[in-house]
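Subject: Protein record for review, amino acid sequence with backbone structure tokens
How to read it: Take the token row as a discrete description of the fold.
Enclosed: The protein record, placed directly beneath this head.
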Amino acid sequence: MGMDVNPASEASEKEYVAPPVVRAEHVEDSFTRLLEQQTAKVPSHVFLFASFCSMAVSLGFEVAGRERVGRFVGLWVTPLLVMGVYNKLVKTLGPR
């Protein structure tokens, strides 16, 4: 009996090549390129650590009876994680 082999597994090993920019409105400006270059310098685990710290501080405020402040700090978790995903995408795909 033969092994199960995914025929698309070799396709995933190919290097990604960004398609050329065809239309002028799809070209990124220099500010976006600068932002991506600076974001790529920050380690990805910093955003994850910051989101865990935000959760811990939020829990601390909730336990201390300061619910409004605790919920405000708890709202920071999602944007921090999204910034971490953006950071990882910039590092993986590179500037376009």
